[in-house]
Specification:
GO terms for molecular function: DNA binding; DNA-binding transcription factor activity. Belongs to the LysR transcriptional regulatory family. The chain is 40% helix and 19% strand. Strands 3, 4, 5, 6, 9, 10, 11 and 12 form an 8-stranded mixed β-sheet that branches. Strand 1 and strand 2 form a beta hairpin. The protein is elongated, with a radius of gyration of 22 Å.
Protein backbone atom coordinates (compact mmCIF):
# COMPACT_ATOMS: atom_id res chain seq x y z
CA UNK A 1 0.00 0.00 0.00
CA UNK A 2 1.45 3.36 -1.01
CA UNK A 3 1.80 6.22 1.44
CA UNK A 4 0.05 8.99 -0.49
CA UNK A 5 1.79 11.73 1.49
CA UNK A 6 5.02 10.53 -0.07
CA UNK A 7 3.46 10.44 -3.54
CA UNK A 8 2.06 13.94 -3.02
CA UNK A 9 5.60 15.13 -2.30
CA UNK A 10 6.86 13.57 -5.54
CA UNK A 11 4.03 15.15 -7.51
CA UNK A 12 4.63 18.58 -5.98
CA UNK A 13 8.38 18.52 -6.67
CA UNK A 14 7.81 17.71 -10.35
CA UNK A 15 4.89 20.10 -10.85
CA UNK A 16 6.59 22.98 -9.03
CA UNK A 17 9.97 22.27 -10.69
CA UNK A 18 11.88 22.13 -7.42
CA UNK A 19 11.93 21.24 -3.72
CA UNK A 20 11.61 24.79 -2.40
CA UNK A 21 8.39 25.63 -4.23
CA UNK A 22 7.02 22.16 -3.53
CA UNK A 23 7.57 22.78 0.19
CA UNK A 24 5.62 26.06 -0.03
CA UNK A 25 2.69 24.36 -1.76
CA UNK A 26 2.62 21.48 0.73
CA UNK A 27 3.09 23.72 3.76
CA UNK A 28 6.27 21.87 4.77
CA UNK A 29 9.93 22.70 5.16
CA UNK A 30 12.24 21.91 2.27
CA UNK A 31 14.14 19.26 4.30
CA UNK A 32 10.80 17.59 5.11
CA UNK A 33 9.94 17.30 1.41
CA UNK A 34 13.40 15.95 0.65
CA UNK A 35 12.99 13.41 3.44
CA UNK A 36 9.67 12.23 2.04
CA UNK A 37 11.24 11.66 -1.38
CA UNK A 38 14.11 9.73 0.19
CA UNK A 39 11.65 7.64 2.22
CA UNK A 40 9.62 6.86 -0.93
CA UNK A 41 12.77 5.76 -2.74
CA UNK A 42 13.84 3.63 0.22
CA UNK A 43 10.48 1.89 0.32
CA UNK A 44 10.35 1.00 -3.38
CA UNK A 45 14.07 0.36 -3.65
CA UNK A 46 14.87 2.65 -6.59
CA UNK A 47 15.18 6.39 -7.38
CA UNK A 48 12.09 8.33 -8.41
CA UNK A 49 13.81 11.62 -9.30
CA UNK A 50 16.88 12.71 -11.19
CA UNK A 51 18.26 15.54 -9.03
CA UNK A 52 18.65 18.03 -11.86
CA UNK A 53 17.40 21.61 -12.32
CA UNK A 54 14.50 21.19 -12.52
CA UNK A 55 14.14 17.70 -11.00
CA UNK A 56 13.07 15.10 -13.57
CA UNK A 57 11.13 11.91 -12.75
CA UNK A 58 12.76 8.58 -13.51
CA UNK A 59 10.79 5.89 -15.33
CA UNK A 60 9.60 4.63 -11.94
CA UNK A 61 8.77 8.20 -10.93
CA UNK A 62 6.70 8.68 -14.09
CA UNK A 63 4.70 5.55 -13.36
CA UNK A 64 4.02 6.77 -9.83
CA UNK A 65 2.94 10.21 -11.11
CA UNK A 66 0.58 8.56 -13.57
CA UNK A 67 -0.85 6.52 -10.68
CA UNK A 68 -1.38 9.70 -8.62
CA UNK A 69 -3.25 11.36 -11.52
CA UNK A 70 -5.55 8.36 -11.85
CA UNK A 71 -6.29 8.19 -8.13
CA UNK A 72 -7.15 11.91 -7.92
CA UNK A 73 -9.56 11.68 -10.85
CA UNK A 74 -11.21 8.50 -9.60
CA UNK A 75 -11.59 9.97 -6.11
CA UNK A 76 -13.49 12.87 -7.66
CA UNK A 77 -15.97 10.43 -9.20
CA UNK A 78 -16.33 8.58 -5.89
CA UNK A 79 -17.32 11.78 -4.08
CA UNK A 80 -20.59 11.77 -6.01
CA UNK A 81 -21.59 8.59 -4.17
CA UNK A 82 -19.70 9.05 -0.88
CA UNK A 83 -20.13 12.75 -0.06
CA UNK A 84 -18.25 12.45 3.24
CA UNK A 85 -15.03 12.13 1.21
CA UNK A 86 -15.45 15.75 0.14
CA UNK A 87 -14.03 17.35 3.25
CA UNK A 88 -14.17 21.04 2.37
CA UNK A 89 -16.39 21.20 -0.71
CA UNK A 90 -13.63 22.94 -2.67
CA UNK A 91 -13.53 22.65 -6.49
CA UNK A 92 -11.24 20.02 -7.95
CA UNK A 93 -8.01 21.06 -9.67
CA UNK A 94 -7.28 19.53 -13.07
CA UNK A 95 -3.74 19.78 -14.42
CA UNK A 96 -3.52 19.99 -18.22
CA UNK A 97 -0.86 20.85 -20.81
CA UNK A 98 -1.81 23.17 -23.67
CA UNK A 99 0.01 25.10 -26.39
CA UNK A 100 0.26 28.87 -26.04
CA UNK A 101 -1.59 29.64 -29.29
CA UNK A 102 -4.64 27.64 -28.23
CA UNK A 103 -4.59 29.35 -24.84
CA UNK A 104 -4.44 32.74 -26.58
CA UNK A 105 -7.37 32.03 -28.89
CA UNK A 106 -10.12 29.39 -28.52
CA UNK A 107 -9.40 27.57 -25.25
CA UNK A 108 -10.98 29.94 -22.71
CA UNK A 109 -14.24 30.27 -24.63
CA UNK A 110 -14.38 26.51 -25.16
CA UNK A 111 -13.99 25.46 -21.51
CA UNK A 112 -15.33 28.38 -19.48
CA UNK A 113 -18.89 27.13 -19.02
CA UNK A 114 -17.71 23.55 -18.48
CA UNK A 115 -15.41 24.57 -15.62
CA UNK A 116 -18.26 26.48 -13.96
CA UNK A 117 -20.76 23.65 -14.26
CA UNK A 118 -18.33 20.91 -13.19
CA UNK A 119 -16.68 23.01 -10.42
CA UNK A 120 -13.19 22.54 -11.81
CA UNK A 121 -10.10 24.68 -11.32
CA UNK A 122 -7.53 24.40 -14.11
CA UNK A 123 -3.80 24.15 -13.57
CA UNK A 124 -2.45 24.81 -17.07
CA UNK A 125 1.07 23.96 -18.17
CA UNK A 126 1.94 25.90 -21.33
CA UNK A 127 4.13 24.13 -23.88
CA UNK A 128 4.57 24.07 -27.64
CA UNK A 129 2.00 21.86 -29.36
CA UNK A 130 4.82 19.67 -30.66
CA UNK A 131 6.12 18.71 -27.20
CA UNK A 132 3.27 18.91 -24.66
CA UNK A 133 2.70 15.16 -25.02
CA UNK A 134 5.92 14.72 -23.02
CA UNK A 135 4.09 16.16 -20.01
CA UNK A 136 1.44 13.47 -20.25
CA UNK A 137 4.04 10.74 -20.68
CA UNK A 138 5.87 11.98 -17.60
CA UNK A 139 2.69 11.79 -15.53
CA UNK A 140 2.72 15.56 -14.88
CA UNK A 141 -0.73 16.17 -16.40
CA UNK A 142 -4.00 14.30 -16.83
CA UNK A 143 -4.51 15.43 -20.44
CA UNK A 144 -2.98 17.66 -23.10
CA UNK A 145 -3.57 19.41 -26.41
CA UNK A 146 -0.82 18.67 -28.93
CA UNK A 147 -0.10 18.14 -32.63
CA UNK A 148 0.81 14.48 -32.27
CA UNK A 149 -1.91 12.05 -33.40
CA UNK A 150 -0.51 8.82 -31.96
CA UNK A 151 -1.69 8.18 -28.37
CA UNK A 152 0.53 6.89 -25.59
CA UNK A 153 0.00 3.39 -24.26
CA UNK A 154 -2.97 3.59 -21.90
CA UNK A 155 -4.19 6.89 -23.35
CA UNK A 156 -6.65 8.00 -26.03
CA UNK A 157 -6.32 10.61 -28.77
CA UNK A 158 -9.19 12.64 -30.28
CA UNK A 159 -8.89 15.09 -33.19
CA UNK A 160 -10.27 18.47 -32.12
CA UNK A 161 -9.70 20.25 -35.44
CA UNK A 162 -6.90 22.28 -36.98
CA UNK A 163 -5.44 25.65 -36.08
CA UNK A 164 -4.94 27.73 -39.22
CA UNK A 165 -1.74 29.78 -39.46
CA UNK A 166 -0.83 32.50 -41.95
CA UNK A 167 2.63 33.80 -42.85
CA UNK A 168 2.43 37.54 -42.18
CA UNK A 169 4.58 40.64 -41.80
CA UNK A 170 4.05 44.38 -41.45
CA UNK A 171 3.86 46.56 -44.58
CA UNK A 172 7.13 48.23 -43.56
CA UNK A 173 8.88 44.87 -43.23
CA UNK A 174 7.75 43.92 -46.74
CA UNK A 175 9.10 47.15 -48.20
CA UNK A 176 12.46 46.73 -46.49
CA UNK A 177 13.05 43.07 -47.35
CA UNK A 178 11.20 42.21 -50.56
CA UNK A 179 11.09 43.56 -54.09
CA UNK A 180 8.27 42.31 -56.26
CA UNK A 181 6.51 39.02 -55.49
CA UNK A 182 7.81 37.30 -52.36
CA UNK A 183 9.70 34.06 -52.96
CA UNK A 184 10.66 31.28 -50.55
CA UNK A 185 14.33 32.11 -51.11
CA UNK A 186 13.75 35.78 -50.26
CA UNK A 187 11.78 35.01 -47.13
CA UNK A 188 14.48 32.63 -45.91
CA UNK A 189 16.98 35.49 -46.07
CA UNK A 190 14.86 37.83 -43.95
CA UNK A 191 14.48 37.60 -40.14
CA UNK A 192 11.68 35.31 -38.96
CA UNK A 193 9.89 35.02 -35.62
CA UNK A 194 10.03 31.61 -33.94
CA UNK A 195 8.25 30.77 -30.69
CA UNK A 196 11.15 28.74 -29.27
CA UNK A 197 13.70 25.98 -29.91
CA UNK A 198 10.95 23.36 -30.18
CA UNK A 199 8.95 25.36 -32.74
CA UNK A 200 9.59 24.01 -36.25
CA UNK A 201 6.43 25.40 -37.87
CA UNK A 202 8.33 28.03 -39.90
CA UNK A 203 10.82 25.39 -41.04
CA UNK A 204 8.04 23.12 -42.28
CA UNK A 205 6.20 25.97 -43.93
CA UNK A 206 9.28 26.96 -45.91
CA UNK A 207 9.83 23.31 -46.85
CA UNK A 208 6.26 23.18 -48.19
CA UNK A 209 7.19 26.14 -50.43
CA UNK A 210 10.27 24.35 -51.73
CA UNK A 211 12.98 25.80 -49.48
CA UNK A 212 14.91 23.64 -47.02
CA UNK A 213 17.74 24.93 -44.90
CA UNK A 214 18.55 27.41 -42.17
CA UNK A 215 17.18 30.93 -41.90
CA UNK A 216 17.56 33.98 -39.65
CA UNK A 217 15.15 34.10 -36.74
CA UNK A 218 14.28 35.76 -33.45
CA UNK A 219 12.94 33.73 -30.50
CA UNK A 220 9.73 35.10 -28.99
CA UNK A 221 8.06 32.72 -26.48
CA UNK A 222 4.83 34.73 -26.17
CA UNK A 223 1.73 34.60 -28.36
CA UNK A 224 0.91 38.25 -27.63
CA UNK A 225 4.52 39.34 -28.05
CA UNK A 226 4.77 37.42 -31.32
CA UNK A 227 2.03 39.57 -32.88
CA UNK A 228 3.40 42.81 -31.43
CA UNK A 229 6.84 42.07 -32.90
CA UNK A 230 5.35 41.24 -36.29
CA UNK A 231 3.34 44.49 -36.25
CA UNK A 232 6.51 46.42 -35.34
CA UNK A 233 8.35 44.98 -38.34
CA UNK A 234 10.86 42.96 -36.31
CA UNK A 235 10.26 39.84 -38.40
CA UNK A 236 7.79 37.73 -40.33
CA UNK A 237 6.03 34.80 -38.71
CA UNK A 238 3.30 32.22 -38.83
CA UNK A 239 0.45 33.43 -36.63
CA UNK A 240 -2.92 31.81 -35.80
CA UNK A 241 -5.55 33.29 -38.07
CA UNK A 242 -7.90 33.63 -35.09
CA UNK A 243 -5.54 36.17 -33.52
CA UNK A 244 -5.05 38.49 -36.48
CA UNK A 245 -8.38 38.78 -38.34
CA UNK A 246 -8.58 42.49 -37.49
CA UNK A 247 -4.92 43.17 -38.34
CA UNK A 248 -5.30 41.52 -41.75
CA UNK A 249 -8.39 43.54 -42.55
CA UNK A 250 -7.04 46.93 -41.52
CA UNK A 251 -3.63 46.30 -43.12
CA UNK A 252 -1.42 46.28 -40.01
CA UNK A 253 -0.29 42.83 -41.12
CA UNK A 254 -0.13 41.44 -44.63
CA UNK A 255 0.02 37.85 -45.82
CA UNK A 256 3.30 37.11 -47.57
CA UNK A 257 1.92 34.35 -49.81
CA UNK A 258 -1.69 35.09 -50.75
CA UNK A 259 -4.17 32.40 -49.71
CA UNK A 260 -1.44 30.00 -48.64
CA UNK A 261 -2.15 29.22 -44.99
CA UNK A 262 -1.02 26.10 -43.21
CA UNK A 263 -3.21 24.02 -40.90
CA UNK A 264 -1.91 22.31 -37.77
CA UNK A 265 -4.26 19.58 -36.49
CA UNK A 266 -4.68 19.57 -32.71
CA UNK A 267 -5.35 16.39 -30.73
CA UNK A 268 -6.73 15.95 -27.24
CA UNK A 269 -4.85 13.21 -25.36
CA UNK A 270 -6.09 11.81 -22.06
CA UNK A 271 -5.64 8.68 -19.93
CA UNK A 272 -8.23 5.97 -20.60
CA UNK A 273 -9.03 5.02 -17.01
CA UNK A 274 -9.20 8.51 -15.60
CA UNK A 275 -12.81 8.80 -14.48
CA UNK A 276 -15.90 10.64 -15.60
CA UNK A 277 -14.58 14.19 -15.46
CA UNK A 278 -12.13 13.75 -18.34
CA UNK A 279 -14.71 11.77 -20.28
CA UNK A 280 -17.20 14.64 -19.95
CA UNK A 281 -14.52 17.21 -20.77
CA UNK A 282 -13.59 15.26 -23.89
CA UNK A 283 -17.21 15.15 -25.04
CA UNK A 284 -17.55 18.88 -24.36
CA UNK A 285 -14.42 19.76 -26.33
CA UNK A 286 -15.40 17.61 -29.31
CA UNK A 287 -18.79 19.34 -29.41
CA UNK A 288 -17.52 22.92 -28.96
CA UNK A 289 -14.19 23.22 -30.80
CA UNK A 290 -15.69 23.22 -34.36
CA UNK A 291 -16.74 26.82 -33.58
CA UNK A 292 -13.08 27.87 -33.71
CA UNK A 293 -10.98 25.15 -35.32
CA UNK A 294 -10.89 24.10 -38.96
CA UNK A 295 -12.08 20.60 -39.85
CA UNK A 296 -8.97 19.34 -41.68
CA UNK A 297 -9.20 17.56 -45.00
CA UNK A 298 -6.43 15.27 -43.84
CA UNK A 299 -4.98 14.16 -40.52
CA UNK A 300 -1.44 14.89 -41.75
CA UNK A 301 0.60 16.93 -39.30
CA UNK A 302 0.67 19.93 -41.64
CA UNK A 303 -1.57 20.69 -44.60
CA UNK A 304 -1.98 23.74 -46.81
CA UNK A 305 -5.38 25.33 -46.29
CA UNK A 306 -7.78 27.48 -48.28
CA UNK A 307 -8.51 31.20 -48.34
CA UNK A 308 -9.27 33.40 -45.33
CA UNK A 309 -12.76 32.62 -43.95
CA UNK A 310 -15.07 35.25 -42.60
CA UNK A 311 -15.34 35.80 -38.82
CA UNK A 312 -18.94 34.58 -39.00
CA UNK A 313 -17.87 31.20 -40.39
CA UNK A 314 -15.21 30.92 -37.71
CA UNK A 315 -17.75 31.77 -35.03
CA UNK A 316 -15.48 34.36 -33.37
CA UNK A 317 -15.53 38.16 -33.01
CA UNK A 318 -12.90 40.33 -34.68
CA UNK A 319 -11.09 40.43 -31.33
CA UNK A 320 -10.87 36.74 -30.32
CA UNK A 321 -10.46 35.82 -26.64
CA UNK A 322 -6.85 36.23 -25.49
Amino acid sequence: MFDYKLLAALSAVVEQAGFERAAQVLGLSQPAVSQRIKLLEARIGRPVLVRATPPVPTETGRRLLYHVQQVLLLERDLRQYVPTLDEDGAPERLRLAINADSLATWWAAAVGQFCFEQRILLDLVVDDQAVSLKRLRAGEVAACVCANERPLSGARSELLGAMRYRAVASPGFRLRHFTGPVTAQQIACSPALVFGPDDYLQHRYLASLGYEGGFQHHYCPSSEGFIRMAEAGVGWGLVPELQILEQLRDGRLQELFADTPIDVPLYWHYWRNSGDVLKRMTEHLLASTPRWLIVPRTTAVLALGASLPSPERLGVPLNPPR
